[in-house]
Amino acid sequence: MSFLFLCGKGKVFGFSCGLRKGFNYQQSCSLVNVKFKWVKDKALDAVIAGERDLRAACNLISILSSAPNGRLPIYHLSRHRGQLGLPHDLKLSTFIRRYPTIFHESYVFDSAGTRVPCFELTLEALNLHHEELDVIRDNVMDLIDRLRKLLMLTKGRTLPLQTIDQLKWDLGLPYDYCDNLIRNYADLFSFFRLPDDRIGLKLLSWDDALAVSQLEKNAALQAEEDLKNSCLAFPVGFTRGFGLKRKCMGWLKEWQKLPYTSPYADASHLDPRTDVSEKRIVGVFHELLHLTIQKKTQRQNVSNLRKPLSLPQKFTKVFERHPGIFYISKMSDTQTVVLREAYDCQRLLQRHPLVDIRERFASMMRKGFLDRSRGVYKKIADVGHKDPSKIVHGLDSEVESDYKLFSEYESDDSIRCPP
Questions:
Q1: Could you tell me if 22 and 261 are in contact, meaning their C-beta atoms sit under 8 angstroms apart?
Q2: SS3 letters for the chain?
Q3: Across residues 197-215, what is the average pLDDT?
Q4: Which of 57, 200, 263, 399 is spaced 20 to 30 A from 367 at the CA atom?
Q5: Model pTM score
Q6: What is the dihedral of CA 342, 346, 347, 351, to 10 degrees?
């Protein structure tokens, strides 16, 4: 897929004007009513395929690795189910058993003497997780800066932890980022209680060096002669066979020529009913997706960002109105927004070290899924004596006890395995 700037050359304004000040632009262009059809992009859909299972597995890996003995019974893991994003009709034990290269199954006894499934990481998965922790330590300031820039996009440099939790996987933040990352930087961040009694995170100070968007950085590298021109254009590319109408092409060319307002600048002067305001919204999400390590996030993850980002109602409509900038994948029963310019077919152009780790986990999952479907992994009943040290008291009544521990695997034909 080739990308182009539909207003000629990309241009950037002088940074000396101050990024936190808006543009004094006469807004005479109202919001033009144009509609683009959604066209499936198989290459970008392939990027999304298996993402749900990979994210759930990586979260379980973090949970198991932090357990005192590295092993937890299924009822304990079920307490974290809400954070895994799995379908409601899929039993957690069924999901875990699909990936025997990642999870090793044993059992413990409850107080009634019933065998309860218990899971721990395989040695291969544990070793890869340790590599992941090393990568996080080596890139900790990069991850911190991504979080700082996210907070700088918001009004008051604050966000509820619940909102950050929804984005932590995309930002590359570790599962337990609050305890093992944020608390180490008390000079940068502060926890506080919101009016609705939720816990929020505040960035304590503004950093002008970080308040430069990726689009501005790219334009500055081009060293255009008229550097003070504010009409930056977004890279645009369409799926083959898109069939862009001449009317829409004309509107898009004119839209690209409108002034670009930095997502880190005050935009309170912009009329939300204009194309100029819409270009600012596109710029906000263009920057937000650049902050993610794989340049994508689920659409629902940004649904709570309207007020913090000072956006108008129905702000996510920009994803449909600009299919040359954003692609909406509908894989895995959800909508994922992908930044087109970040990919060459299925290849991510700028690869964060954590992406390589995740791809290795995905490869392990594929291998385990296929090997298990071929019968490589067999359930072997343990007929040994009950070990008192493995007795677990106080078993929750909602344990998945209806599953026969040594029965055949349930069919997973309808489940998509990671690519």
A1: yes
A2: CCCECCCCCCCCCCHHHCCCCCCCCCCCCECCCCCCCCCCCHHHHHHHCCHHHHHHHHHHHHHHHCCCCCEEEHHHHHCCHHHCCCCCCCCHHHHHHCCCCCEEEEEEEECCCCEEEEEEECHHHHHHHHHHHHHHHHCHHHHHHHHHHHHHCCHHHEEEHHHHHHHHHHHCCCCCHHHHCHHHCCCCEEEEECCCCCEEEEECCCCCCCCCCHHHHHHHHHCCCCCCCCCCCCCECCCCCCCCCHHHHHHHHHHHCCCCCCCCCCCCCCCCCEHHHHHHHHHHHHHHHHHCCCCEEEHHHHCCCCCCCCCCCCHHHHHHHCCCCEEEECHHHCCEEEEHHHEECCEECCCCHHHHHHHHHHHHHHHHHHHHHCCCCCCCCCCCCCCHHHEECCCCCCCCCCCCCCCCCCCCCCCCCCC
A3: 96
A4: 399
A5: 0.83
A6: 60
pLDDT digits (tens, 9 = 90+) for 133-184: 999 999 999 999 999 999 999 999 999 999 999 999 999 999 999 999 999 9
- Locus of tokens 């939300």: 272
CA distance 268 to 255: 20
What is the tens place of the pLDDT at every residue in 217-239? Answer: 998 877 654 345 678 999 998 88
Q: Which amino acid is at 385?
A: H
